[in-house]
Every structure is written in structure tokens, then in C-alpha cells.
Design a protein that fits this description.
The protein is of the alpha/beta class. Helices cover 45% and strands 19% of the residues. α5 links the parallel β4 and β5 (132-138).
Amino acid sequence: MCYHCCVTYKFILIGVGEGGGRLAVAFDPLGYFVCAINTAQGDLDGLGLPNERKLLLQISQGGTGRDTTIVKEGMTHPEHREALKNFLSTMLSQQDNISLTYVLVCVGGGGGSGSGLANLVIENLLEYNVPVGMIYTLPGDDEDVVIKTNAVNTFQQLYNEKAVNAAISPVILVDNAFMNKLGIPIKDFYSVVNKKVAENIHTFNSFSSLPSKFFSAVDTLDFGRVLGLGGVCSLGKIPKIVNPLDFPYVTNLIKESLFVEGLNMESAKGAAIIVTAPDFMLSNEHVSNCIKFIFEYVSRFSGIVFRGVYEDHTNSEFNVYLIFNGMTFPQDRFNRMWQDIRVGRSAVKRKEQRIDEMTFS
């Protein structure tokens, strides 16, 4: 059996802005169709995509300086709106089987182009008869007030207008503040994080197209149902399970496996769990009991749970992949960001006052 060479959905990744473009490109080595939209030529040039898959919206001298109003005002001009509409239409028309197409808009929350264009790009895509989802990255704790403000305001708008009613789904959150705790070197941070996200989504997309000779499988309809539940979605991979019979330890691994903090897993409308391992490991009694516990634990609070166990002869590890969807707004995480924003604004105001005092002394 060929693992990872067949898939359920033909995902189209549309990167919006600098961060969104880098995230989308992480799917390119996995065989997905990737394109990008930006207001800065330099950001597009660095993606390594063919020119026909890149759209430069020349609404400024180059970029936006993190100012979303530049983008929103620029996109009121008919020529820019027409360019965006034509580009998206062209990208979708290149798909062989539109019935299997699923669009994922990648947005780096905080940048001027990504935050300013995200809503308009999604509104255009919703005019087509294809499912649309989004991967949205939250800024790290070390980012400035402007980036955090853009990220919060943009996500809240998209959540309230399009995620609650499942107009777009999944809305996958990736928290760079949480990923920062993994000890990834700064020079590799974005490439490593983006690769993790892409590979986790690809794992579900590939194994859900395959049968399982063990227990059960997450099939095409199961995967599609989980993706379409609306609300907030997150995914992750449980780290290596050292003590499979230590169930409190396994429970903590589940809670820490998602790519974002502050989510209420117990509010999830649905979940999917995929377990992969070589045959000899799946035959181990301790591993088998651990898998049963994970299935049982998630079933206690999630509305519906799809479970799949697959032999993977290409990997020597016991791997557990999770998707939770239909979750409520991550209020705790956003309260933290609002607190950071208030502290940052107060610090800026104090500096401005000191400058004024120095000027007039």
C-alpha cells in the first residue's frame, strides 16, 4: 500500500500576505496547488512560486507597513478588486476535479497585507461552489502592539461573520507564542512550524483516503464532516509516548498536543483521531490499551469522534494525530493578547510623554 501518495481532497493553498505566503508554500513539497497574494513584490519573489501563481496588488509603493487601512482603502478601487477576482477565478479554473477541491486560505495574523486582505479574499472565494477554510497564525509574545492588534481584530471579525455560521470551515488556529516554547532556533522557526502544520493536515488527508485492516478508518466522508463543523479548529500530533499505560501522563500529552493554547477542547463538536504505527507495535498490548484510552478520553467530551488505526511500514514510531473542530472562541488566549496590547500602548504613551517633556524643557 502506498502511504502519503493519494489524498482525499485536492487542497488549494492561497497564501495572503508575507506570513500566509510562507505557510502556503510549506504545502508545495507535498504536492498541493499553491498560490499567493501580496502587496510587496519582494515577499512574493521569496516564495519560489511560478509567476502565474502570484498576484501583486500594487496599492502602495511596496507593502503596507502593517497598516491595514492602506489595503482596505486601496481595494476600494475597481482595478484592484477586478485583478483579485480574475486571479482567484483563474486559480480555481486550473483544477481538474472541482468536486474534490477544498480551498485553504493561509493568513499570518498581524501583517498589513494578510490582515487587510483576508476578509476580501474569502468573500470572493465564497462566490464559487467550493468549500473554503482558513489557517490563521497568531503572533508570538515578542511581537509588537500593532501586529497583535491587527491579528486580534481581523480574527474576531472573521470568526463572528464567517466561522460561527460555518460559512468557512475549518478555521485552523496556529499559535506562534505556543510554538515558541518548543525551543525551535529562531532562524528555522517559521519553516519548522509551517512544515509541522502542513504535514499534520496532509497526514489526515492521505490516510483518510485509505482503508484500514485494524479496528476502524477515518474515511472521506468522516474527514469532510469534521472539517465542516464551523467554529474554531486546531490540530496537532502527540509527542512520543514514553509511558503508554500512564493515563494521566497521556491525558496531558493530548492537551498539550494542539498548536494553540487557551482552546476549550471540551466545546468541540467533533474530532478525528488517526493512529499510525508499524504492525509489530500495533500488536503490543500496552500500545493497544493506550490507543483505546485515547479514543475513550476524547469521546467523553467531543460531540462526534472519528477514529482510524493504520499500519504504516514507512515509520517506526507510534504516532497519534488529532483534529478538534467546532470549538468556541478561544477567549483566554485573546484576553492575554489584549492585555499585552494594553501594556504596550501604555508603554508607548509614557515614552511619548517623556519625549514631549524633553522637547519643551
